[in-house]
Every structure is written in structure tokens, then in C-alpha cells.
Write a structure and sequence with these properties.
By secondary structure, the protein is mainly β. It folds into 3 domains: about 25-140, Immunoglobulin-like (Sandwich), CATH 2.60.40; about 145-235, Immunoglobulin-like, CATH 2.60.40; about 245-340, Immunoglobulin-like, CATH 2.60.40. The chain contains 1 helix and 24 strands. The chain has one helix spanning about 1-25, and strands spanning about 30-35, 45-55, 60-70, 80-90, 95-100, 115-120, 135-140, 145, 150-155, 165-170, 175-185, 195-205, 210-215, 225-235, 245, 250-255, 260-270, 275-280, 285-295, 300-305, 310, 315-320, 320-330, 330-340. The strands form 6 sheets. Strands 8-17-18-24-20-21 form a 6-stranded mixed beta sheet, with no helix packed on it. The protein is elongated and about 70 Å long.
């Protein structure tokens, strides 16, 4: 009897150790148990899987790569989670593994953003045959400022011996950038996606240029022909906090949007005392732009949107600050603030 109990204990210990190892080596995958009989995969109408492919890497892990896009009839940007249904050989049950795409928010219609699963084939032996699906797609309704003030220069053809891609990234704005995720889709000669790659730039100073590298999985590197959909995502923009820009040694400008706005250009011209935004209000309704000039502005400001001067501007002075409130329509707009005192 004691031998049976010891055997059961050893078996349970091994199962526990395997489970811990899996969790340690695959922390980004969220495992949600699902009853096989009640499980039903239905494509989410807000976003969709554009394409996918699967293979084994050099360590016999199952690799599932693909791209996801926002539906063209969906007005709101989408926060997306990709799922794969997989049979767990230890628990004898089906589970859902999930991953985020490499871009945190999908806001352009039908534009593919890559994702990638790395799955333990011993624990999930049939995962290679599973089809990824949109597990969650939610409207993004919180105000977020996405900076797009980066410039990428790269060839689409691989350059290195292992079919890696080398490029340069430049911060073309006056604000330091942090935690930039650069990503790309790897294609074969038939324009089929065979890998998803990414790299992280921890810090990028104003107007600084750094090198970056994309490295494909060694298991498919001989099939790599070109890279596409190279892009970047900046993840550290604070919600509801003023973003501060030093426009001179004695003057700072703070700004905050009340919608999801992508800033494509941000600059202060000291010779003309002008501050300029090029923005895209992605929400399907107007949003507010709150500005603070510190110290306060004595002379009247001149503000224009898309070249048309605003006749009435809401300004007030509080605690040595000049506060400005603007309403920004949906879509792309150029905003110029002139006559800023230094």
C-alpha cells in the first residue's frame, strides 16, 4: 500500500514540476480551461485573422504565426486578444492559449498586425493542427495618445547570413520615447507569412537615431524572402496625464487629449514662436485638446486648425499657467499655436 501511495506521490510531483516548468517558460500565454462540449469558436465581427501558418522550431515547439486586422465597418479602435484551442495531454482537457498582437491597439481598417504563439508540443501535442481565432476584440474607449514621431529606414530584402533585417529608427520629435516595440511580417517567395518578428527599443532621445535588427526563427530562415508591414508601437503614453514639452529654457507646454489621438508630427519653431501638431483623432466623434503654457502667457495666442484661424479660443490663467481648451473633430488635422512668449 505504501508503494502505491509513493508512486502516486511521485507521479503527482512530476506533473506538478512539468506544470511549473511550462508556466516559467511560457509566461505570456494565458491558459483558460474550457469544456470541450461547450466550446464554440466564432469569428469576432470587430476584427479578423487575415492569415496564419504553423511549424515546429528547432526545439520541437509549435509555432503559430499570423496577422490580425480591424474590420472596416468598425468605427472604434480595437483591443484584441488572439486565441488557440489546444488539447492538454496532462489534464486531458482542452484549453485556450492567448497572445496579444505585436501592436497594442488596432485602429486602421484591414491593416495586418503580426502575432506569434510558441507552444510546448509535449504538453499540447495537437496544437500544430489548430487554427488561431479572435478570442477577444473590444472597443477602445479610454483616451490614449499614440506618438508616431518615429522614422524607420530599412530594406525589405534580408541582409544578414541568417536572413535577418537591419534598419535605423529616428525620433523626429522633441519628446523622449520609451519602450518602442518594432515589428514586421516575414514572407516567403510566394508572399506567404512564415514568421512574425519584433524587437524593443528601450529609450530613444529626441532626434536620436539607433540601429535595430529583426531575426527570423532559424527553422524557417532558409525560406525568408522579404519583410513587410514594418511598424512600431509606443506603449508608455499615460492616460489622462499631461505630456510635457520643453519649448525653451524658461517655457514648457503641456498637452492632453480626451480621445484616442495619434500624433504624427510635433515641433516647436523658436524663430517663429510656433508650436505645431499633426494629429489624427481616431474616435468617431470630436475630442478635446487641453493645453497648458507655463509660465502664463501675457500676449494673446493665435491658434489655427487646418490653416483656418480660430476666432474664439477658451483661455484662462490659473496659478501662473495659461490653460487652453480646443475641440478637435474626427480625422487628421494640423494645429498651429503662434505668438508663444519665450
Amino acid at each position: 500500500m505504501s508503494k502505491t501511495c509513493n508512486h502516486d506521490f511521485v507521479t503527482l510531483s512530476i506533473i506538478g514540476m512539468v506544470t511549473i516548468v511550462v508556466i516559467l517558460f511560457y509566461p505570456s500565454q494565458i491558459l483558460a480551461k474550457s469544456n470541450e462540449s461547450g466550446f464554440n469558436i466564432a469569428e469576432n465581427p470587430r476584427s479578423f485573422i487575415k492569415n496564419y501558418t504553423s511549424y515546429y522550431d528547432g526545439y520541437n515547439n509549435t509555432i503559430i504565426v499570423g496577422s490580425v486586422a480591424k474590420s472596416d465597418y468598425q468605427d472604434f479602435p480595437q483591443n484584441v486578444l488572439i486565441g488557440v484551442r489546444a488539447y492538454n495531454s496532462i489534464t486531458n482537457s482542452h484549453e485556450i492559449l492567448t497572445e496579444k498582437p505585436y501592436n497594442s491597439i488596432l485602429y486602421r481598417d484591414n491593416e495586418p498586425f503580426p502575432f506569434k504563439f510558441k507552444i510546448n508540443s509535449t504538453l499540447f501535442p495537437d496544437a500544430i493542427n489548430e487554427e488561431p481565432f479572435v478570442f477577444k476584440s473590444q472597443n477602445v474607449s479610454l483616451p490614449i495618445t499614440k506618438l508616431n514621431t518615429i522614422e524607420l529606414k530599412y530594406p525589405v530584402i534580408p541582409q544578414g547570413a541568417n536572413k535577418e533585417l537591419y534598419g535605423n529608427i529616428t525620433n523626429i520629435g522633441p519628446i523622449p520615447l520609451k519602450n518602442i516595440t518594432l515589428f514586421a511580417i516575414v514572407n516567403d517567395r510566394n508572399s506567404t507569412q512564415i514568421d512574425s518578428v519584433k524587437t524593443v527599443i528601450p529609450n530613444l532621445k529626441p532626434y536620436q537615431t539607433l540601429n535595430f535588427t529583426f531575426i527570423p526563427d532559424p527553422a524557417i530562415q532558409n525560406s525568408v524572402y522579404f519583410y513587410s508591414c514594418v511598424g512600431g508601437d509606443i506603449n508608455d503614453m499615460k492616460i489622462n496625464d499631461l505630456q510635457i514639452v520643453n519649448i525653451s529654457s524658461s517655457k514648457v507646454l503641456g498637452y492632453k487629449f480626451s480621445s484616442l489621438v495619434q500624433i504624427d508630427y510635433l515641433n516647436y519653431n523658436s524663430s517663429s514662436n510656433q508650436f505645431s501638431f499633426s494629429i489624427n483623432n481616431i474616435y468617431p466623434y470630436p475630442g478635446s485638446l487641453s493645453l497648458e503654457l507655463m509660465p502664463l502667457q501675457n500676449d494673446p495666442l493665435s491658434i489655427s486648425i487646418d490653416g483656418s484661424p480660430l476666432q474664439t479660443v477658451s483661455t484662462r490663467n490659473v496659478d501662473n499657467k495659461t490653460l487652453i481648451e480646443l475641440s478637435i473633430p474626427q480625422g487628421k488635422h494640423d494645429i498651429t499655436i503662434s505668438n508663444i512668449e519665450e
